[in-house]
Specification:
Helix content is about 50%, strand content about 15%.
Length: about 400
């Protein structure tokens, strides 16, 4: 009997990781620095993920997906982010924020319409939640959706900000988005609804591509504008006022895979550190023989493995159709995001001047790592959420 491997609990998971490691080495690594410098998204490479069955990793096989679980999603995000976190972020927005969300929350007809193209990569998709004036305060969003008197459509007005995959090439929007909007006044989840909005709908346009970001430069980020956009009632997700459940269910897997991205960043930083410490000579010996270097590498590895164990333990227990797993979904991201940033920082310090330039990867990994302390929930939001959950549900921690 094969020993249990938390990080590859089945043979299928192990094969997935092996395939990804090979793909990352041959396809992702060679392009990462170039597209980061150009601030461009590598869409042809993205489409290859569709050929590998990765864009619909958690979607049903009847809709073109691979039908795998949260552990598989973590494996993909860890491996892609170990090379190019920005490319992985675009993958996350497409495969988790759109594909998984649609797979879990939409009707059969909606899935049949949108998931095959999303899973094969012919469509580039994303989600619209954040706004210029509403980030963590999601219930403060101002985008509205008003139902027509004949009940045939909703009219959307407003804008969305920081939207990953909001544009494919900087000239137009991505293809399809799951967009959250207020269908009634108030500040409760029941005041929000979700809609499937397609490129080309009159009034739906690209505001601007956001450039000069600290990190994640090879992932396109944009503002999306809705000016009297008529969305057919058939594009309402679930029911009017039902977006709160959709949002909370998908936030859990989003935060877990963001933590898995942080694992990839930390792992690659440790690998670069360890290799460099063996090769670099100072004062007549390799710098890996000095205690300062050993401290940086050893502490980084221990922190990485602690985070990795936490992430995969939470992922293997997650039912993608469930909700109410917020404590540890928040917890893994709260731990792993700063851990990865700190490990990448140590790597820059160990490499000295070489760590400060793009050739050695770690400066890019460090810049990319910072986003995970903000996107998908700020560290401060995780503090609030976790303390609330512990107070309500975990008087005694098992």
């Amino acid at each position: 009997m094969r020993d249990f491997d938390m990080f590859n609990p089945t043979e299928e998971h192990a094969q997935l990781r092996t395939m990804l490691r090979s793909f990352v080495e041959s396809e992702v690594d060679p392009q990462a620095l170039e597209f980061n410098r150009k601030e461009e998204f590598n869409y042809p490479l993205f489409k290859k993920l569709g050929e590998l069955g990765l864009l619909g990793i958690t979607a049903g096989t009847e809709y073109g997906g691979s039908g795998m679980d949260a552990v598989a999603a973590c494996i993909v995000h860890e491996e892609l982010a170990s090379s190019d976190p920005a490319f992985c972020l675009s993958y996350l927005a497409h495969s988790m924020l759109f594909v998984n969300n649609v797979n879990q929350n939409c009707s059969h007809e909606q899935k049949m319409k949108y998931l095959p193209g999303a899973c094969d990569g012919s469509l580039l998709c994303g989600m619209g939640m954040s706004e210029p004036g509403a980030g963590t305060d999601v219930l403060g969003m101002s985008t509205t959706a008003t139902k027509s008197s004949d009940g045939s459509h909703y009219t959307l007005n407003g804008s969305k900000m920081w939207i990953t995959n909001g544009t494919k090439d900087g000239t137009d929007t991505g293809d399809v988005f799951l967009v959250y909007a207020k269908t009634s006044q108030g500040r409760s989840p029941g005041d929000m609804s979700a809609f499937l909005v397609e490129k080309g709908m009159p009034g739906f346009s690209l505001g601007s591509k956001i450039t000069d970001k600290c990190g994640m430069r090879a992932s396109n980020t944009a503002e999306l504008v809705f000016d009297n956009v008529k969305v057919p009632v058939e594009n309402l997700v679930a029911k009017e006022g039902g977006a709160g459940l959709c949002m909370m269910r998908n936030l859990e897997i989003e935060r877990i895979v963001l933590a898995a991205m942080s694992l990839g960043i930390a792992r690659r930083s440790i690998e670069v550190m360890s290799s460099y410490a063996q090769e670099r000579k100072a004062f007549g010996k390799s710098i890996g023989e000095f205690g300062q270097s050993q401290k940086a590498i050893a502490e980084s590895y221990a922190e990485f493995m602690a985070g990795r164990t936490y992430v995969y333990n939470v992922a293997r227990q997650l039912d993608l159709a469930s909700f109410g797993n917020t404590l540890d979904a928040d917890g893994v991201k709260l731990y792993c995001a700063p851990m990865a940033k700190n490990v990448a920082d140590r790597a820059i310090q160990l490499l000295g001047g070489n760590g400060y330039v793009g050739e050695y990867q770690v400066e890019r990994l460090w810049r990319d790592a910072k986003l995970n302390e903000i996107g998908g929930g700020t560290n401060e939001a995780h503090h609030k959420n976790m303390c609330r959950d512990i107070r309500k549900n975990h008087v005694k921690i098992l």
